[in-house]
Amino acid sequence: MRLTLFDLDHTLLAGDSDHGWGEFVVRHGLVDAREYGQRNAAFFAAYQAGNLDQAAFLEFCLEPLTRHSFEELARWHRVFMTEAIRPLMTARGRALVAERLAAGDLVAIVTSTNSFITRPIAQAYGVEHLIATDPEVLDGRYTGRIAGLPAFREGKVTRLHLWLEQRGQRLVDFGQSWAYSDSTNDLPLLEAVTNPVAVDPDDALRRIADQRRWPIISLRDPAPPAA
User: Fold this and answer.
1) Count of CB atoms situated within 10 Å of the CB of 179
2) Would you kindly state where each structural domain of the chain is located, as residue ranges?
3) CB 122 within 8 A of CB 109
4) What DSSP line would sit under 23-79, residue for residue?
5) For the residues 43-59, what does the mean pLDDT come to?
6) Which end of the chain, N or C, is surrounded by fewer C-beta atoms within 10 Å?
7) Options 7, 16, 18, 182, the catalytic residue
8) With the CA atoms of 18, 216, 92 and 133 taken in that order, what torsion angle do they form, in degrees rounded to the nearest 10?
C-alpha cells in the first residue's frame, strides 16, 4: 500500500485559503472591515515569519462562524469557492492529485486550516480524506472553539497517527509514503514519511531539502507568454 499526504495552502493551492477566507468575509461585509482586515493581515505576516500564535489565530478566525447558521455559512462558502479558491487550484496540482488517486494510493489532505474552510476544497480535488483543525459544534452551531488537537506542526503527525489507527492501520504498514509541503511548519510531517517532497518551498525548507537531497517541485502553472 502507498500513502500520499498533501498540505493545502501554498502547496496544492497557489495561495492561502485561511487568509483568503479572512479577506472574503471583509470584502462581503460579514465582519468589521477595518479591524478584522488588520488583524487578519497581522496573523498572516506572523505565519509567514514562523511565529504564529496558533491558539489566538484560531479564536480570531472561528469567531465569525458563530454568528451564522450552517445554511448561511454553506451559501457563503460556495461563493468563496468561486471567487477565491478555484482560481488558486492549479492544473498541475489537480493533475498530481488525480494521478495519485488513479494509482490507488490512500490520499489525504493534511492542513492546519479549519475543516469548515477546507472540506469543500478537498472535495473539489476529489479527495475523500481530510485531516484538518476541527471547529467545535454544539446544538447545531459553531462555538468558536476547536474540537480536539489542531493539525499544526507536530499536531499534524499526531492527527495522522490517530486517523490511521481509526482505520486499523499504522504508518509503517505502508511500503511507501509521500508528503508534499511548502513550509518548514510541516517538517515533522515530511520527516515522518519515506518520501518527503518540497513544493514551491519557502527559503528555510528549500535549504533543508537541498541539504537532505529531497525532491523540490513546483505545482504552479507556468505564466502565459507575453503578448
Assistant:
1) 28
2) 2-217
3) yes
4) HHHHHTTSS-HHHHHHHHHHHHHHHHHT---HHHHHHHHHGGGGGS-HHHHHHHHHH
5) 80
6) C
7) 7
8) -30
pLDDT above 90 covers a percentage of the chain that reads 76
Q: What are the start-end ranges of the E strands in the chain?
A: 2-6, 106-114, 129-138, 141-147, 176-181, 195-199, 216-217
Does 3.40.50.1000 match the CATH number of domain 2-217? yes
pTM of the prediction?
0.91
User: For residues 142 and 136, is the Cβ–Cβ distance under 8 A?
Assistant: yes
Q: What is the pLDDT of residues 5-28, one digit of tens each?
A: 999 999 999 999 998 998 898 899
Q: Is 9 a catalytic site residue?
A: yes
pLDDT by residue (tens digit) across 167-217?
Answer: 999 999 999 999 999 999 999 999 999 999 999 999 999 999 999 999 999
Residue that the C-alpha cell 505565519 belongs to? 47
For residue 126, the surrounding DSSP H or E stretch is none
What is the helix (H) or strand (E) element at residue 186, kind and residue range? none
pLDDT band with cut points at 50, 70 and 90 for residue 44 = confident
CA dist list (Å): 161 to 151, 156, 181: 12, 9, 18
Is residue 84 within 8 Å of residue 24, measured between CB atoms?
A: yes
Angle 54-62/33-49 helices, nearest 10 degrees?
A: 150
Q: Which three cell numbers stand for residue 15?
A: 495561495
